[in-house]
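Check my protein:
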Amino acid sequence: MTDERGAESLAAALSASTASDRAAAAEALAARAESDPEAVAAVAAELDTGVSNVDARVRTATTAALAEVADTDPEAVVPLAGHLGDRLDDPEPEVCYHAAYVLARVGAADAAAVEPALSALATATHAADESLSRLAVHAVAATAETDPTVVDETETADTLRSGLVAALADDDDTVRRRAVRALARLAECGAVDPPEPTAVASLATDDDAAARRDATFLVARAADTAPTDVLDSLSVVTDRLSDHGAVAVHAVAALSDAARVAPGRVAERVAVGEHVVPLLRHDRPDVRANAALTLGRLASETSAVADSVDTLAERLVDSAPVVRANAAFALAALSETAPDAARPAMEPLLGRLEDGEEREQVRVHAGTALDTLRSELSPAPSPVSAAAADDGVPRGAVAATDGERGVGSLDGTTGASEGTDGASEGTDGAGEGTTDVSDDQSESDTPEPRDG
């Protein structure tokens, strides 16, 4: 039976006139919290005098009591979150551990409540004490996963990011996985820049599927803003192309961005026919779309992509408009670099051009491809040019919309241009949908030890 009155008396005794009485009250509260956390939860907001007491015994016992309460009722500890941030550099290690542990629990329940402690947590993630730095990473990760905008609005965002990046190399699997998940959530909302792809490469091959998803998302986000950065991680990206849906989406998106700036290096290091062309028949339309876009960007490497023409032609009648558009884009690019290889696609391309109900972008790309191929056959003006112009769409309109990207990469890292609606199955964010991020959280991700 919960004894709230006894807990109230002990809380009041934290202000007793003698140090021995204060210490005895704090230690009794810790024992009571272990056996009856609900009773202490009822008076948790009144324990600030114990949290900041000059006596180390009082601080240690009080924060231990709050850690017990936070396990069952983190909301009860919310009013003390700011005080707990002050205890992260306490001379007593146990106090630091308890404070960081409680902040991790609070962050999972109320991210905004942790905001006053974020600066102290940022420093603690770099602490020499490994137990403290790990618990601080858990606290930052819990806050970022609950509401990444809280971190976005703090002046210590860069320090928090660097602490999470450092944690990617931790020996503890749980710490690494929490760090990569937090970074994915923060990068998703633009709170921090993604880490270098090499920093998350090991997580991209992790046994945990959620960790692989988050790591490949970060690689894709980095590739979107700095595509050359992913070139040193191409082998990791290629290995992930055959992974489960969301991982494959992000992996092929990263490969597509790399192909945009360095097609020769991508073609040299990736067996396109073995790893990319089969993705044109993937069961997810976003994977098929990104695969087609990648092949279009690799069109200058004719020996690598020439054998993809028949499969690309099949995708011209794909159920997803974005896949059809990117397939037409790839064939248009191949028509310029390898017209002989692309010529078998003329009939399917003509079918897209003449379909009055087809999307504008698909028809424009199909018309571009046919114009190029027909000019190879005859120098005379092609009737296809006139047909394409009948839309009222100026040639090059698609390139002006999204440049060399074709229709859009659908990796959740860039805004897709027209024609992507209905094709994606939740590829935004750090996985198959931002709501799935927390759904995959395993119990092992919860920090357990408070004493290192």
Notes: Confidence is low (pLDDT under 50) at residues 380-452. The chain has 29 helices and no strands. Residues 360-377 form the longest helix (18 residues).
